[in-house]
């Protein structure tokens, strides 16, 4: 990534947006506070000198070790991480944003964690957010039409969660 | 009466209004490149709203990737864009190599260019032939598949498979080329070059084809970028981006020293490195015709690249190198890499916790984003234009549903 001046500009423009960073790694990333995400994305697309006009990918990573022996050794608490890969057509540069969410809202199992939708910034986020909702179970607030996209509408659970279990039966089809 | 007949036929069609109706296209419609279902809200012949329903080919590739080592996942990438499996293999292999900070030998790099560009030709041939089918002409499909068969024979000799190759793998290639293969490949190129003129006669300059595609489904560059469209769809709108030139260094290094011009209209002209038919006067930048034409130019461009890579590969004296171990340990961290595949920019994202099995794998499909823009393109068009628009996006459902 060329030039990191825009990060200090971002910090000045939106206070408390950047809460972590690693610019030395393979793909430099910024950790964004969940409540400032929409504002930050809009700034990066519209006000930043390197206009990040493309959203390439949204990924949700479920950090949960289901094996209790291994879980005792890991140095992180269970959480969900959403990764946004941005791209600037003009500068041919990319940027990674990471947002950390709890695995369940208010730690109530079954209550999907919430984060604001960036569909109003990049139209392409529409289908990507639907996919993340479908497979990883993240509620995108403000999304115009948040419903499953790859799995059938009446599917239960979110398959890319680490504690997901295949249903025993789906419309008479054996699951496992 | 004579005055009405002089008028454009389409104006009359746009005039006929009836009750609103929901029309279901698919999921087994032959013109939709796989199992895609489109729900159209129509008024007479006019489509007021179109909504794609996807997921019929969802095989949980990403979840499977969390249970296999990085190299074991290669065959699953074959089944994403099954028309360009070599390019899929390369995308994943490079993403893993990026995380490992591993560089393959020079010979393997040239071989990768050679084989992926050949696969790009094969993929665009299907795209072209199937597009003819979408528009109701059968012959171009047979002409395209005749040549593609020869390409598949070449691939079969290299790796034993005709569709799902798993040839490019993490750390190199599964095998070197068999003896005499380069000569057969060159013979194919010599034979194939004049055939392209036939394609241009059959489709590109065909009056009916131009009428069906020119000024239909016009995609503006801003909208294309907003929706994350990539590849020929983006370049067909006049945006000059090709990851083989603009991508990350681990990918562009493969093409170091290769001469090629990005197939995009710049200052009103397409590259003039070869003789191409003129742009018809009805065509508007960003319409179906331009998306199709960019693919046709890329076939010629890929042929040039294959010829260059044959030279370089045969001049390389060093060994090809062995691929990495099946259960190679990955360093903790993550890596995302996009490569220029025939359908667009295919991205692979890999998160590792330090074991040989990735914690999370993600495939960012190019056709997924390209298809997402289709409701915008189909708004207000005729029912008959829907296959023309979808076909011009050249989607492959295996890649969209994963």
Q: Summary?
A:
The complex is a heterodimer of chains A (176) and B (402). Chain A is of the alpha/beta class and 176 residues long. Chain A has helices at 5-13, 37-46, 68-71, 125-136; strands at residues 18-22, 29-32, 54-63, 79-88, 93-101, 114-116, 139-141, 169-170, 173-174.
User: What would the average pLDDT of chain A be, to the nearest integer?
Assistant: 88
The major beta sheet of chain A can be summarized as: 5 strands, mixed
The class by helix and strand makeup of chain A works out as alpha/beta
Low-confidence stretches of chain B: none
SSE-based structural type of chain B:
alpha+beta
Strand arrangement in the largest pleated sheet of chain A: 1-2-5-4-3
In oligomeric terms, what are we looking at?
heterodimer
The stretches of 5 or more residues of chain A where confidence is low (pLDDT under 50) are: none
Helical coverage of chain B, percent range: 40-55%
Please compute the radius of gyration of chain A using only Cα atoms.
18 Å
Tell me what portion of residues of chain A adopts beta-strand conformation.
25-35%
Shape of chain B: globular
Q: Tell me the strand percentage band of chain B.
A: 5-15%
Task: Give descriptors for this structure.
heterodimer, A: about 180 residues, alpha/beta, five-stranded mixed beta sheet, 9 strands, about 25% strand, B: about 400 residues, alpha+beta, three-stranded antiparallel beta sheet, about 10% strand
Describe the 3D structure:
- The complex is a heterodimer of chains A (176) and B (402).
- Helices cover 20% and strands 27% of the residues of chain A.
- Chain A contains four helices and nine strands; from the N terminus they run H-E-E-H-E-H-E-E-E-H-E-E-E.
- Chain B is of the alpha+beta class and 402 residues long.
- Chain B is built from 19 helices and eight strands.
- Chain B is globular and about 70 Å long.
- The A-B interface holds A 25-27, 53-57, 59, 61-62, 74, 83, 85, 89, 92, 94, 96, 122-124, 126-128, 135, 148-152, 159-160 and B 54-55, 58, 60, 62-63, 98-99, 223, 225-229, 239, 241, 246, 333-336, 338, 345, 347, 349, 351, 353, 359-360, 362, 364, 368-369, 372, 401-402.
């Amino acid at each position: 990534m060329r030039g990191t001046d825009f990060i200090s500009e971002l910090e000045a423009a939106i206070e408390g947006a950047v809460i972590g960073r690693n610019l030395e790694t393979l793909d430099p990333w910024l950790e964004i506070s969940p409540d400032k995400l929409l504002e930050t994305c809009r700034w990066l697309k519209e006000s930043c000198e390197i206009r990040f006009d493309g959203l390439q990918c949204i990924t949700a990573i479920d950090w949960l070790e289901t094996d209790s022996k291994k879980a005792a050794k890991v140095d992180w608490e269970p959480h969900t991480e959403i990764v946004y890969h941005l791209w600037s057509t003009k500068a041919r540069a990319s940027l990674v944003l990471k947002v950390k969410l709890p695995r369940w809202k208010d730690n109530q199992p079954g209550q999907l964690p919430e984060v604001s939708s960036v569909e109003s910034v990049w139209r392409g986020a529409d289908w990507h957010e639907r996919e993340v909702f479908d497979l990883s179970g993240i509620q995108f607030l403000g999304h115009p039409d948040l419903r499953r996209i790859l799995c059938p509408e009446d599917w239960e659970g979110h398959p890319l969660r680490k504690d997901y279990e295949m249903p025993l039966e789906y419309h008479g089809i054996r699951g496992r | 009466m004579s005055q009405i007949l002089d008028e454009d036929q389409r104006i009359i069609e746009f005039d006929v209004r009836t009750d609103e109706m929901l029309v279901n296209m698919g999921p087994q419609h032959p013109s939709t490149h796989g199992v895609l279902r489109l729900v159209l809200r129509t008024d007479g012949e006019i489509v007021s709203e179109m909504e794609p329903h996807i997921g019929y080919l969802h095989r949980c590739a990403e979840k499977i990737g969390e249970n296999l080592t990085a190299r074991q996942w290669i065959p699953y990438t074959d089944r994403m864009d099954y028309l360009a499996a070599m390019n899929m293999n390369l995308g994943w292999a490079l993403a893993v190599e990026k995380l490992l900070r591993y560089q393959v030998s020079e010979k393997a790099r040239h071989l990768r260019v050679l084989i992926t560009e050949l696969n790009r030709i094969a993929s665009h041939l299907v795209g072209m032939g199937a597009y003819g089918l979408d528009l109701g002409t059968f012959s171009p499909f047979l002409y395209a598949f005749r040549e593609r068969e020869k390409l598949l024979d070449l691939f079969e000799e290299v790796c034993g498979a005709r569709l799902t190759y798993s040839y490019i793998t993490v750390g190199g290639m599964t095998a070197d080329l068999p003896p005499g293969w380069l000569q057969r490949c060159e013979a194919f190129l010599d034979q194939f070059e004049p055939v392209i003129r036939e394609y241009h006669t059959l489709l590109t300059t065909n009056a009916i084809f131009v009428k069906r595609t020119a000024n239909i489904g016009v995609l503006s560059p801003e909208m294309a970028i907003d929706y994350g469209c990539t590849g020929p769809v983006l370049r067909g709108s006049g945006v000059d981006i090709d990851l083989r030139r603009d991508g990350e260094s681990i990918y562009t290094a493969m093409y170091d020293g290769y001469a090629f011009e990005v197939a995009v209209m710049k200052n009103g002209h397409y590259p003039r490195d070869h003789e191409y038919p003129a742009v018809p006067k009805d065509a508007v930048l960003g319409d179906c015709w331009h998306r199709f034409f960019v693919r046709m130019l890329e076939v010629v461009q890929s042929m040039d690249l294959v010829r260059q890579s044959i030279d370089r590969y045969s001049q390389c004296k060093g060994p090809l190198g062995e691929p990495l171990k099946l259960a190679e340990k990955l360093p903790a961290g993550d890596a995302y890499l996009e490569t220029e595949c025939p359908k667009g920019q295919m991205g692979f994202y890999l998160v590792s916790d330090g074991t040989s099995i990735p914690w999370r794998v993600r495939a960012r499909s190019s056709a997924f984003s390209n298809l997402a823009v289709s409701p915008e393109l189909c708004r207000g068009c005729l029912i008959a234009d829907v296959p023309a628009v979808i076909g011009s996006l050249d989607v492959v459902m295996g890649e969209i549903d994963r």
